[in-house]
Amino acid sequence: MQITEIIQKRKRVSTTDLATETFCSISTLRRDLIYLERQGLIRRERGEVILNTFNTMEQNILLREKQHLDEKKSLAKIARDFIGPGMCIYLDSSSTVFQLCEYIKNIDNLIVVTNSLNVANTLAANGNDTIRTFITSGEIQHNSCSVLNSEFENPIINYFNIDLAFCSASGIDQSSIYESNMNQALSKKTIMDKSKETILLIDKSKFFKTSFFKMNTLTEYKVIISDALPANPISQTVKANDIEWISSNYLH
């Protein structure tokens, strides 16, 4: 089991136990922990490693991509049904939306706009020859492998007529969709405002998680794909606003 997986599961673990479970020497483990601490993912206190669980900091993509992986794949598989040949789509830099790459790599004449280095690299390496991939300009956010451009214009976006934007988020409640990083929220909102429609992919672990940064109101989404049906009071907002909520666990 990887270091990040153990810390994510246990929340708090002694350095000695972590070294034993990962079969690492203390010196090797210390180097890895220093890296994770610098990324803001953990803190070390009196021989223990503690997961940072506050939701105002975006988690490192290496940690996020291992969380709820089966659920993310199930959401991406459903989202693929909305995409057809010749469409222009936007894929955000979330670990959830990244799973779409495997399902769209053989769609012909697809135009993909993304702010994700991982999406761009994956489609460049594995996509068919008719897929054209464009990456937004801006500063690279190391933790998330995102390209963020909130401080200046991103003119490339103005040249695309985006049919569908696929985005995820760090939290959802009955009124809003949240991001843990303000620049991520602003970057996604810019794309969504320019797209004909946005589809939200969000697993149940994000239900009722909030942050300081509201990306959008819940009513701005026409389609939401999740691995569970919405709980009250989210379900009340969904029903009142005729939002199509698709749950992978309730498809037959």
Could you characterize the architecture of this molecule?
By secondary structure, the chain is of the alpha/beta class. It has two domains: 3-53, Winged helix-like DNA-binding domain superfamily/Winged helix DNA-binding domain (Arc Repressor Mutant, subunit A), CATH 1.10.10.10; 63-250, Rossmann fold (3-Layer(aba) Sandwich). Helix content is 33%, strand content 23%. The chain has helices at 3-10, 15-22, 26-38, 61-64, 69-79, 95-98, 100-104, 117-126, 182-194, 234-240, and strands spanning 12-14, 42-45, 48-51, 88-91, 111-114, 132-135, 139-141, 146-148, 164-167, 171-172, 176-179, 197-201, 213-217, 223-226, 244-247. A seven-stranded parallel sheet has the order 6-5-4-9-12-14-15, sandwiched between helices. The protein starts with a helix and ends in a 5-residue tail after the last strand. The relative contact order is 0.12. GO terms for molecular function: DNA-binding transcription factor activity. Residues 1-51 form the HTH deoR-type domain. This is Lactose phosphotransferase system repressor.
Write the layout of secondary structure elements.
Elements: H1 3-10, E1 12-14, H2 15-22, H3 26-38, E2 42-45, E3 48-51, H4 61-64, H5 69-79, E4 88-91, H6 95-98, H7 100-104, E5 111-114, H8 117-126, E6 132-135, E7 139-141, E8 146-148, E9 164-167, E10 171-172, E11 176-179, H9 182-194, E12 197-201, E13 213-217, E14 223-226, H10 234-240, E15 244-247
Parallel strand pairs: 4-5, 4-9, 5-6, 9-12, 12-14, 14-15
Antiparallel strand pairs: 1-3, 2-3, 7-8, 10-11, 11-13
